[in-house]
Design goal:
Elements lengths: L2 E6 L1 H5 L5 E9 L7 E6 L2 H9 L1 H14 L5 E3 L3 H5 L1 H13 L4 E4 L8 E4 L1 H7 L2 H22 L4 E3 H6 L1 H4 L5 H6 L6 E6 L2 E6 L10 H16 L30 H12 L17 H16 L5 E3 H5 L2 H4 L5 H7 L4 E4 L6 E4 L3 E2 L2 E2 L4 H10 L9
Antiparallel strand pairs: 1-2, 2-3, 4-6, 5-6, 7-9, 8-9, 10-12, 11-12, 13-14
Helix pairs in contact: 7-17
């Protein structure tokens, strides 16, 4: 009996000298066949996104820490308590490097040194409240869709908290969103576990980001007078069941690959908003539906990306495949896994143009404006 084991080579993933990563495929049998390797092409632009976010994230985190203090100032001696001994030095570097955002005062007489926001930074920071107000209906809509995607229209509350940063939820979201909209949400304890529960189903929300994109493209095509629909050399196909393909620059699909991809692009599949219990796991249409579920989950996040461990936490709620990484690798025209940064991250490739996130929500636009005070053009 043969067993196939597919693993990502971590050393290859972290290599900066190669244009691709190797996926090792080992066939174990009585004959002991030699290992084979498949190529998983790197996307340097998406890798770069992870590097570009490092300093902006420190700036924004320090801003939040300062704003949480009673007098909107943080004693430098207390910085270690807030961020830890090791991270403290990264923040000290940020304070020193960006005097246009952070002002250091005190240190004379009995007054201990402290850091606060500059007047210009405070002025921009006051705009965050308006951005949060604009975000509220977006967050309510996305939370409802998140619950509608699940098999029982409910998700354990700790899992919602687990991906709260990716969704853009405020830290007090239970009070500011859940309890504020009882017509949409409730918290119920089932077998000793708290769940966020959907109160009312809304069919108008059961439309995926993929379907919305197809509707826009179909309108553009009609306006341009193009009626012929065909697969292109980059794997894209304008059809109601097709996904946007964004292959890495080094990937060159051959004719047979494109033929198989065309069949897959044309294959009908049930909506990810239909209950997964209704479909056979082994059915090819259901396997394509799983891709749609992953696509929609990432579309609900602010930055259209999620740490892979967090995505992996929703197996039971969304009936995700047990070998989730293999599914993501197989559909590398849609998703990209990067190991840049502390943890591996899954990107929705179509959401990015190079290193730039195409559509930004109000809070991300505010973040960009605040970080721009540093004098650096950054992509969050």
């Amino acid at each position: 009996m043969k067993r196939s084991i597919i693993t990502l080579s971590s050393s290859a993933i972290r290599s900066q000298k190669s244009d691709f990563m190797f996926v090792s495929v080992r066939q174990i049998s009585n004959g002991g066949k030699r290992s084979k390797k498949k190529i998983y092409h790197r996307d340097y632009q998406l890798d770069k996104v992870m590097d570009l976010q490092k300093k902006p994230s420190l700036i924004l985190q320090l801003k939040s820490i300062i704003q949480s203090q009673n007098q909107q100032r943080l004693l430098l001696r207390d910085l270690e308590k807030e961020v830890g001994f090791v991270a403290k030095w990264n923040f000290m570097s940020i304070i020193e490097k960006y005097p246009s955002i952070f002002r250091v005062g005190g240190g004379c007489g009995k007054e201990f040194p402290f850091v606060t926001l500059t007047g210009k930074a405070e002025k921009v920071a006051r705009e965050e409240g308006e951005a949060r107000n604009l975000m509220e209906p977006i967050l309510v809509r996305n939370l409802r869709k998140l619950l509608m995607l699940s098999i029982d229209c409910r998700v354990p509350l700790e899992k919602v908290e687990f991906i709260g940063d990716e969704l853009g939820l405020p830290h007090d979201f239970k009070k500011s969103l859940i309890f504020k909209y009882p017509e949409y949400f409730s918290i119920k304890v089932i077998n000793g576990r708290a769940y966020l529960n959907l109160e009312n189903w809304d069919s108008s929300l059961a439309v995926t980001a993929r379907e919305e994109r197809f509707a826009r493209e179909r309108m553009l095509q009609s306006a341009g007078g193009q009626n012929k629909v065909r697969i292109t050399k980059d794997g894209n196909y304008l059809g109601p069941f097709a996904f946007k393909m964004c292959y890495a620059a080094g990937f060159r699909p051959n004719k047979s690959y494109l033929e198989e991809l065309e069949k897959w692009q044309k294959m009908e599949f049930p909506s990810p908003y239909l209950n997964a219990r209704r479909f056979e796991v082994a059915d090819p249409k259901n396997r394509k539906r799983v891709v749609a579920v992953l696509h929609e989950l990432l579309s609900l996040t602010m930055e259209k990306r999620m740490i892979s461990a967090k995505l992996d936490a929703f197996h039971s709620e969304y009936r995700l495949p047990s070998k989730l990484v293999l599914c993501l690798i197989k559909h590398h025209g849609i998703f990209y896994i990067t190991n840049k940064g502390a943890r591996s991250t899954v990107f929705l490739k179509e959401a990015y143009d190079g290193t730039n996130l195409v559509d930004k929500c109000p809070i991300l636009m505010f973040n960009d404006k605040f970080v721009a005070l540093s004098g650096r053009h950054v992509t969050l």
